[in-house]
């Protein structure tokens, strides 16, 4: 049966091409291809758009089925929508006008943790599902679950541990934050996690595991890119794809490359991605490392999402050196879909997608020497590259993923839809 589906994310891929925004938008289009009426709602602020007085909403895209919510007044600590006289009434009006059968939430940032409650209060019979993409409800440190000093990985969220990272914030506020978010998330009918690792983190935090299903992220259908001009095996080409920031392991990657250059290894590393909204100190650091590693390392800059297939086709191996618990990086799926081996950190959802010695190589995070050793193995063994490529695990296409979501939504019992 045809449904009206509102897909809500914390931004739009045309403004901020992060993995969550890209996947949410791809799934939105897949819902439409499946015959459903879908509307995409992306929340933004002054970082990407200026306010337009008179309405909380701004148009984006040519089809009239995408809209931006301008959310300039937002409490990032409580993930709370505080514009009670602007955004909240306008969200209510949008819900009443579109009257979705399903609201599919992909993030609480800028939308507000109250959003599921607003949906339930406005449309009591609406089914509410939420895909968990990161750790924002668990971690005030930008959802990274990395300690604020020393880049130490955090293994468990609790008010005491959070307070030790942010000593200027009283302990009782972290207690209230946790209670606030858990209370509002009870309104969600079902949660979906793209990895078992992320699912377990939310169970450990206190969500009911029976309400969290695992559905891996899918990729949009694309024409197979041309293999013409692919590099020769005697000088392998590595590729990095994504934003450049400290948590993506950019500095670790460049330091590993510097070590290999000093050893005399012949290789090429193409670094695709920009460094938007990063501190000057970080940009200065990577600029220095790029200068030290040229010309073996090439800074290729930002790319369009539709170009990713061709860019990955032109390398021998993709590197994902993140030093935080990445959940399900789309670039790993993109590489595997083209039978490209991946070197990735052995933590989080990355360790589920890449099995060491089978379809790629995994290394300890934040360890340039270990990463350099993995790159050396790939560079010196064409047989290893071929074996890892042959074992690549092709992900589902986004239309298959959408069907799995729709099956889950159809299975929500009426008793689950009634407001708690």
Automatic annotation (TrEMBL):
<keyword id="KW-0614">Plasmid</keyword>
<dbReference type="Pfam" id="PF00534">
    <property type="entry name" value="Glycos_transf_1"/>
</dbReference>
<dbReference type="Pfam" id="PF13439">
    <property type="entry name" value="Glyco_transf_4"/>
</dbReference>
<dbReference type="InterPro" id="IPR028098">
    <property type="entry name" value="Glyco_trans_4-like_N"/>
</dbReference>
<dbReference type="InterPro" id="IPR050194">
    <property type="entry name" value="Glycosyltransferase_grp1"/>
</dbReference>
<protein>
    <submittedName>
        <fullName>Glycosyltransferase family 4 protein</fullName>
    </submittedName>
</protein>
<feature type="domain" description="Glycosyltransferase subfamily 4-like N-terminal">
    <location>
        <begin position="17"/>
        <end position="220"/>
    </location>
</feature>
<feature type="domain" description="Glycosyl transferase family 1">
    <location>
        <begin position="227"/>
        <end position="394"/>
    </location>
</feature>
<dbReference type="InterPro" id="IPR001296">
    <property type="entry name" value="Glyco_trans_1"/>
</dbReference>
